[in-house]
């Protein structure tokens, strides 16, 4: 919990610096997740659901930044986007093996 609070404070204090970096990072991670989802698009892996989740969470963060929402909500969306996209990449890499 302390790591979360310290990271949130750093994000708040350096908001202008972290925004371009976080947009680029999570957009690239979302595109990698979409690549693996589409590469592994078989009927038993529910590719439409996975791709929809990937796009929704990635675009939610981008929309929060563009709408200049509260920094805490933006930070939480960034964390959610990173975690969900890493899970989707790991799941699809595992299914490709």
Protein architecture, described:
The chain has one domain (17-96). It has helices spanning 2-13, 15-39, 47-66, 71-96. With 97 residues, it is mainly alpha-helical. The chain starts with a helix and ends with a helix. The protein is elongated and about 45 Å long. The protein is 86% helix and 0% strand. α2 (15-39) packs antiparallel against α3 (47-66). The mean pLDDT is 93. The chain crosses the membrane at residues 15-36, 48-69, 75-96. Keywords: Membrane, Transmembrane, Transmembrane helix.
Helix amount, in percent?
Answer: over 70%
The total number of structural domains is 1
Distance between the termini: 35 Å
Radius of gyration, CA atoms, in whole angstroms: 15 Å
Transmembrane segments: 15-36, 48-69, 75-96
Keywords: Membrane, Transmembrane, Transmembrane helix
Q: In a nutshell, what does this entry contain?
A:
By secondary structure, the chain is mainly α.
What key phrases describe this protein's structure?
transmembrane helix; mainly alpha; 97 residues; single chain; transmembrane; membrane
Question: How does the SSE layout of this entry go?
Answer:
Layout: H1 2-13, H2 15-39, H3 47-66, H4 71-96
Helix pairs in contact: 2-3, 2-4, 3-4
Transmembrane segments: 15-36, 48-69, 75-96
Keywords: Membrane, Transmembrane, Transmembrane helix
